[in-house]
Amino acid sequence: MQDRSTNNFASPAQRTRLRFGQYVLDLGLGSLLRDGQEIPLRPKTFAILRHLVENPNRLVSKDELFDAVWPNVTVTDDALVQSIGELRRALGDDGLNLIKTVPRRGYRFATAVTDDGPADRPPAAASAVSDAAESAAGQTARIPPGAPASRSSRIALFASLAIAFVLVGGVLLWTGEASRLAVDLGFAGRPTDAAIGVKPAIAVLPLADQSDDPARAYLADGMTQDIINALGRFSSLTVMSWNAVVPYKGKPASPDGIRDLGVGYLVEGSVRQTGERMRLTAQLVDTRTGRVLWSARFDEALTNLFALQDRITREITGALAIRVTDAEARRTFAKPTENLEAYDYVLRARPALQRPERTSLVEARALLLRAIELDSSYAAARAALGETYYSAVSMGWAESPTASLDQAEELAHKALALDDSNVRARIILSRVHVFYQRYDQAKAEIDRALAINPNDASGIAGRGNILMWLGQTDAAIEDLELAQRIDPDLVPMDRFALSLAYYLKGRYDSAIEQAELNLRRSAGANFSRIVLAAAYAQQNRTADVERVVSIVRRADPTFEPQEFGTKFLSSGNLEHLREGLSKAGLFAARPSTSN
Q1: Which of the residue ranges 131-135, 366-370, 467-471 would you say has the lowest mean pLDDT?
Q2: CATH of 491-595, one of 1.10.300.10, 1.25.40.10, 3.40.1280.10, 1.10.10.10
Q3: CATH classification for the domain delimited by 193-332, as one of 3.40.50.1820, 2.30.110.10, 1.25.40.10, 3.40.50.10070
Q4: From 83, 178, 242, 528, which residue has the greatest number of CB atoms within 10 Å?
């Protein structure tokens, strides 16, 4: 590894203001400034920028960034890609020029950086904050990263931080330093909801399974997912998806974890099934103060499972004091099925839908058919079954795409006949309409889905897909990026759409990042290789083009370049795509015929 001692910077204790162009990275304040105005960044994103700025004009590998920003935490490439994208957007027109992607290796901060030295800062206030926080938090604040922590220790951590707020509050108000309090205590340095939107943002961490039978762990996951889905139906909340919180499964809630999620509120708890009874504990925490807003213990019969989920949802929304419309309440608290065994089969099928593989989809189909046999009126089971058929088509696994799409559409309609508020069924219908280029019908269905659950990442991404094919690329990127923020684990077709939208805007580095990420997560996403080849070709990266094109021809010898991209309504977008494919050697215009 390159010797970093060649960087001409002061020691960390003195190094507080680093300047590059019109920007200043103020390490003391934890802020990025442009011409004196602060640019809001999430804490992990700020940490990535800091590491890049402190190591200018050299390759910084992905592993190095993971070690610097997420020490002792296992995260996927999605987190890094999202943060780099956020940085580039924050830097505006300078973003792509300042942060260069080195394919398959890492990033390079491509500009000179100067050290402006320490900033003027009232030392007394900083000392007061540090001393008060250290005194209040005591040993709890020094738990080593990755060390195990019990539920009581997590509550102690929140409690100690709340005490720290009380101790230093007067000092901070007197000195005007209140905006830095949360950073000094380990939480985000600005309102975390701003990273997502103006609505309160909440994350429900996976309920810890404390049952004696590990084979039943999926029940705790299923309950977590259903609580997330229930909360997502409230238009006054932004709710992080299951895929956003699953990396924290089995880990203690820590300030770093909360900060990385970028939410204002956190739900955590545990569940234990003993015989025919379910014991569940849960608490709602304000992440900016550490204050427990609500906590409860439940001991219910398994037959009361749905009533228990409803009660938890009601009490959380009550504690947050959000506005709940009558329609939202009716949809949220409707009982999905009377048959717990059918519900169990649906829970077991869910993982295959969240990350589809050819064999797992077949297995999921069998589970869902069994659920429908047990309860023929179970709308969610029919919608999920329809999704297995659509997923098979989108991934190129269906022997007869038309027949599979017909089945997906029929099952979605049957689900809606049973429950017209089923979001998944409406999203499936929308995607089938997109396949046949029925964009008005597709948008109508996706709008209905998002009216029911405005936080559904698949619905938001589905709208982004439609907008991209319609030629509204900027709006498409906005929706697809929002979907990725709520759900970092986008399905392959949605990540493909984001990559293609970036390509259309000439953001080839971003297009390449998303396409490569898609292929790492799903090797069968061959459609992403097409975009990858076109983007490489636009950057004149001949060796990369040859490598990818060779794989395309081996993996999909029937690839028809004349058809690829024909869903675009904008002829300019189609021409732009074909230009890249032509440069890559994947497209040749058909010769005109004349009599």
Answers
A1: 131-135
A2: 1.25.40.10
A3: 3.40.50.10070
A4: 528
pLDDT digits (tens, 9 = 90+) for 404-442: 999 999 999 999 999 888 999 999 999 999 999 999 999
pLDDT at 257: 59
User: Domain segments of the chain: what residues?
Assistant: 4-115, 123-186, 193-332, 491-595
Percent over 90 (pLDDT), the chain: 32
β-bridge pairing 114-115 and 17-20: antiparallel
Determine the CATH number of domain 4-115: 1.10.10.10
User: What pLDDT does 321 receive?
Assistant: 52
Helices (H), 422-567: 423-435, 439-452, 457-470, 473-486, 492-504, 508-521, 526-538, 542-555
Are the C-beta atoms of residues 499 and 511 closer than 8 Å to each other?
yes
Give the predicted TM-score (pTM) of the model.
Answer: 0.58
Name the burial class of residue 591, with classes exposed (0-12), middle (13-18) and buried (19+) by CB atoms within 10 angstroms of its CB.
Answer: exposed
Distance from the first to the final alpha carbon of the chain = 66
Tell the residue number behind the tokens 């060390």, with chain if given: 147
Task: Confirm if 518 and 394 have CB atoms less than 8 A apart.
Answer: no
130-147 residue pLDDT tens: 333 333 333 333 323 333
| Cα–Cα dist 578/471, whole Å | 15
CA distance 315 to 246: 23
What's the CA gap between 500 and 571, in Å, rounded?
15
